[in-house]
């Protein structure tokens, strides 16, 4: 089965054509085409994503990226001597329906509806969160196959700008949420602390970068809910602690060392919370595998600490094999739609900004 997928949940416009094969016991995927248009430069002056601007950019980018996909397919067909359909035998079109920014979601959904009608193909909605979890099945390179046989039960840690979730997976079609953030998502906390430090948007990569020059033990920031006895998170208190600390250090606010130490200490505290909560979930659930997904999964220290912890408790650690599959992309939406198809689950093509697992 070949799926053309569209992703517009936030500030990345993405399209992908993915060949999907296998059943729930061992699906595998080949990315045939993958294009992404980032809006970072559009939103950077505002220090965050502006929904109305995101929608405008999606509406502008979608036809351009679709034509790019079609043109690449034409060239490939000509080179291989194939005749017929522009993009070959597409079986279905998938589009993100949530969660995300409502204006951005609707831009993708309305475009997908029109495209499905023109191509006379079924339209499937897809859950963005499941896409991040299932992205571990994506191969590193376009045109390649990577068979990943994940042992269940597994614990999935989803970390992004909008979500921080721990879930237990007894199978691909059996997912139970164990806990989530009660306030800020960890990615949101990274962005807000970066803004406090005068670092550019998006803040996550900037925090990681400047932290390399800092002392992670310099400041003992709190670790909210780390001993709460459940698998929920809270990052608002940590963020506020950073704010109060910087206010007290006002005279040194422009010191590079202060910024580096603050960033490193904040990052250390946030990741400490994530790792300890995840370890508890693994030990309590008897998991054999750990899955990491979401934009914050690109954080080097988080991956290193989860790798170390996984080795200590004896579980297999899986995270997307390519950096670009951590951030929003359409290939993961194709995977989510295909697995939903195998599960017999359908999402209506309507925006669901608050959709959860």
Can you characterise this structure?
With 357 residues, the protein is α/β, with parallel strands linked by helices. It folds into two domains: 2-146 and 323-343, ATPase, nucleotide binding domain (Nucleotidyltransferase, domain 5), CATH 3.30.420; 154-318, 2-Layer Sandwich (Nucleotidyltransferase, domain 5). Helices cover 42% and strands 19% of the residues. The chain is built from ten helices and ten strands. A five-stranded mixed sheet has the order 3-2-1-4-5, sandwiched between helices. Strands 8-7-6-9-10 form a five-stranded mixed sheet, sandwiched between helices. Strand 2 and strand 3 form a beta hairpin. Helix 8 (256-285) packs parallel to helix 9.
Describe this protein with a few key phrases.
single chain; alpha/beta; Nucleotidyltransferase, domain 5; 2 domains; five-stranded mixed sheet; 10 strands; globular
Q: What percent strand?
A: 15-25%
Mean pLDDT over the residues: 93
The major β-sheet equals: 5 strands, mixed
User: What percentage of residues falls in helices of 4 or more residues?
Assistant: 40-55%
Low confidence ranges = none
Radius of gyration: 21 Å
The CA-CA distance between the termini, in Å, is 25 Å
CATH topology of the largest domain: Nucleotidyltransferase, domain 5
Order of helices and strands: EEEHHEHEHEEEHHHHEHEH
**Morphology call:** globular
Question: Total domains, how many?
Answer: 2
Supply the CATH superfamily name of the largest domain: ATPase, nucleotide binding domain
CATH top level of the largest domain?
Alpha Beta
Beta-strand segment tally: 10
Provide the CATH architecture of the largest domain. Answer: 2-Layer Sandwich
Give, in spatial order, the strands making up the sheet with the most strands: 3-2-1-4-5
Number of helices: 10
């Amino acid at each position: 089965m070949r799926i053309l997928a569209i992703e517009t949940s936030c500030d990345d416009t993405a399209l992908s054509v993915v060949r999907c094969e296998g059943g729930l016991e061992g699906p595998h995927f080949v990315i045939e085409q993958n294009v992404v248009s980032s809006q970072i430069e559009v939103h950077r002056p505002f220090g965050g994503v502006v929904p109305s601007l995101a929608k405008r950019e999606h509406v502008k980018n979608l036809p351009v990226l679709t034509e790019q996909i079609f043109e690449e397919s034409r060239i490939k067909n000509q080179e291989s001597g194939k005749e017929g359909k522009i993009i070959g035998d597409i079986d279905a079109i998938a589009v993100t329906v949530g969660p995300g920014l409502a204006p951005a979601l609707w831009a993708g959904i309305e475009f997908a509806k029109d495209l499905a009608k023109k191509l006379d193909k079924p339209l499937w909605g897809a859950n963005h969160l499941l896409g991040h979890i299932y992205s571990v099945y994506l191969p590193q390179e376009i045109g390649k196959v990577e068979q990943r046989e994940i042992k269940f039960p597994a614990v999935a840690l989803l970390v992004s700008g909008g979500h921080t979730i721990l879930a237990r997976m007894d199978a691909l079609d059996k997912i139970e949420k164990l806990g989530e953030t009660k306030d800020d998502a960890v990615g949101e906390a990274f962005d807000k602390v970066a803004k406090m430090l005068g670092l550019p948007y998006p803040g996550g990569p900037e925090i990681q970068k400047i932290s390399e020059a800092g002392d992670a033990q310099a400041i003992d920031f709190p670790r909210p809910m780390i001993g709460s006895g459940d698998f929920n998170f809270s990052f608002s208190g940590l963020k506020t602690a950073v704010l109060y600390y910087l206010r007290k250090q006002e005279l040194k606010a422009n010191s590079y060392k202060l910024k580096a130490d603050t960033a490193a200490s904040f990052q250390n505290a946030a990741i400490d919370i994530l790792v300890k909560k995840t370890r508890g979930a693994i030990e309590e659930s008897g998991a054999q595998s750990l899955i990491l997904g979401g934009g914050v999964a690109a954080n080097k220290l988080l991956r290193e600490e989860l790798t170390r912890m996984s080795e200590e408790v004896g579980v297999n650690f899986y995270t997307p094999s390519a950096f670009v599959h951590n951030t929003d992309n359409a290939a993961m939406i194709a995977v989510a739609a295909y697995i939903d198809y195998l599960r017999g689950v359908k999402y209506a093509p309507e925006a669901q900004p608050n959709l959860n697992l």
